[in-house]
Specification:
The radius of gyration is 21 Å and the shape is globular. It is 70% helix and 2% strand. The protein has helices at 3-35, 40-48, 59-84, 91-116, 133-143, 149-173, 180-198, 208-221, 226-235, 246-270, 279-284, 287-313, 325-334, 339-349, 353-380, and strands at 50-52, 56-58, 240-241, 244-245. The protein has one domain: Na+/H+ antiporter like fold. The two termini are 42 Å apart. 45% of the residues are buried. The model is unreliable at 1-5 and 386-401 (pLDDT under 50). A two-stranded antiparallel sheet has the order 1-2. Strands 3-4 form a two-stranded antiparallel ribbon. It contains 15 helices and four strands. The chain is mainly alpha-helical and 401 residues long.
Length: 401
């Protein structure tokens, strides 16, 4: 596959993510306005209303467990494509963003745990570990030619690996008690999907019922239902089947639905916090809130940029063409925009509304501050200095100052 052919679906993905970030922002703002309007009760009554579609769940849970499975399916498709034919197919090229992503997850978690010190808030330790690629790529798109294309690819690679880690965290640490019977059913259904592939079943429509059955089985097993979407995405073939690239076709058709409908609807259903009654003041005085803020605003950029700098000093990997270490610092700050998956994890971590509200306020503050900091750093630190052009090689010291 030619480089141009490989870049076509990637460019489409980045475009949809950037544009979807705007719609996501609209959904989040609408939720906050609605939750603090005279119709506040209607907002919470709507999303807490139960809807029995075979499973009796609140409307918010249908969005979070059901529709978000489509979001995670698209994430699984993108992970599979990047690992097989994309930016992460070369293990050596993937090593640098992998190290940056791992440090960008580990340091926020460590800072969060250090601040919460084993209290009830400690259950939310994974909240600042996530990066919202839609918002991050959206900021880069707004900056235009101030940032090189290679920086977008580097940040995308970090975010994808970040997603892999977040998915593993959700599956392992934020699942309820496991039902062995339902887990066996889910495994059998996954085996059935693999068998259908090997038997040459190629029509996408034939996989819809097995996919729905798998979602139910995973939901009932105690593992979070969205993991079903990830599993199916990773099982999607990357090659051509009967003249069609199934993975690219699915991503082309479903990613706009995920970016422009599912994720904004998730924001509308989950971003609403009623700041009345002292909620905002309590949140700003909460250790949980500031643990999230510091994890996102400090842990993410220091983890990402620090690990990248150390790796380059040790001659491990190289930055893309035209990307400087100074720009990586700005991109690392954008990694602190943790909106979508951070809110998702907060809903899994806590049962009480007070803790969820504190976590959401921390996510809002930390994500907004990270977006502003990242944009400012990329505009200022990203300016070229005389005599400092070209590719950043392993071991070059391109730190600012």
């Amino acid at each position: 596959m030619s480089p141009r052919r490989r870049l076509a679906p990637l460019a489409e993905y980045l475009h949809d993510e950037a544009a979807g970030g705007i719609v996501l922002l609209v959904g989040a703002v609408a939720a906050l306005v609605w939750a603090n309007s005279p119709l506040s009760d209607a907002y919470f009554d709507l999303w807490h209303a139960h809807l029995d579609l075979g499973l009796d769940l609140s409307l918010q849970h249908w969005v979070n467990d059901g529709l978000m499975a489509l979001f995670f399916f698209v994430v699984g498709l993108e992970i599979k494509r990047e690992l097989v034919v994309g930016e992460l197919r070369d293990r050596r090229a993937a090593l640098l963003p992998a190290l940056a992503a791992a440090a960008g997850v580990a340091l926020p978690v460590l800072l969060f745990l250090a601040l919460t010190a084993g209290g009830e808030a400690a259950d939310g330790w994974a909240i600042p570990a996530a990066t919202d690629i839609a918002f991050a790529i959206g900021i880069l798109a707004l900056l235009g030619d101030r940032v090189p294309a290679g920086l977008r690819l580097f940040l995308l690679a970090i975010a994808i690996i970040d997603d892999v880690i977040a998915i593993a965290i959700i599956a392992i640490f934020y699942s309820s008690s496991i039902s062995g019977g339902w887990l066996a059913v889910a495994a059998a259904l996954l085996g059935g999907v693999v068998a259908m592939r090997r038997l040459g079943v190629w029509r996408v429509s034939w996989y819809v019922l097995p996919a729905l059955a798998l979602w139910v089985a995973v939901h009932e097993s105690g593992i979070h239902a969205t993991i079903a979407g990830v599993a199916l995405g990773l099982l999607t073939p990357t090659g051509t089947v009967r003249g069609r690239n199934v993975l690219e076709l699915l991503e082309h058709r479903l990613h706009p639905w995920s970016a422009f409908a599912v994720v904004p609807l998730f924001a509308l259903a989950n971003a609403g916090v009623d700041f009345g009654g002292g909620v905002l003041g309590d949140a700003l005085g909460s250790t949980l809130t500031w643990a999230v803020v510091i994890g996102l605003l400090v842990g993410k950029p220091v983890g990402i940029a620090g690990a990248t700098w150390v790796a380059l000093r040790l001659h491990v990997g190289a930055l893309p063409d035209g990307v400087t270490m100074r720009q990586v610092i700005g991109a690392g700050a954008l990694g602190g925009i943790g909106f979508t998956v951070s809110i998702f994890i907060a809903g899994l971590a806590f049962d009480t509304g007070r803790l969820i509200d504190d976590a959401k306020v921390g996510i809002f503050v930390g994500s907004i501050a990270s977006a502003v900091l990242g944009a400012v750093l990329l505009i200022t630190l990203g300016r070229k200095r005389p005599g400092r052009t070209g590719k950043v090689r392993a071991g070059e010291d391109h730190c600012p100052g």
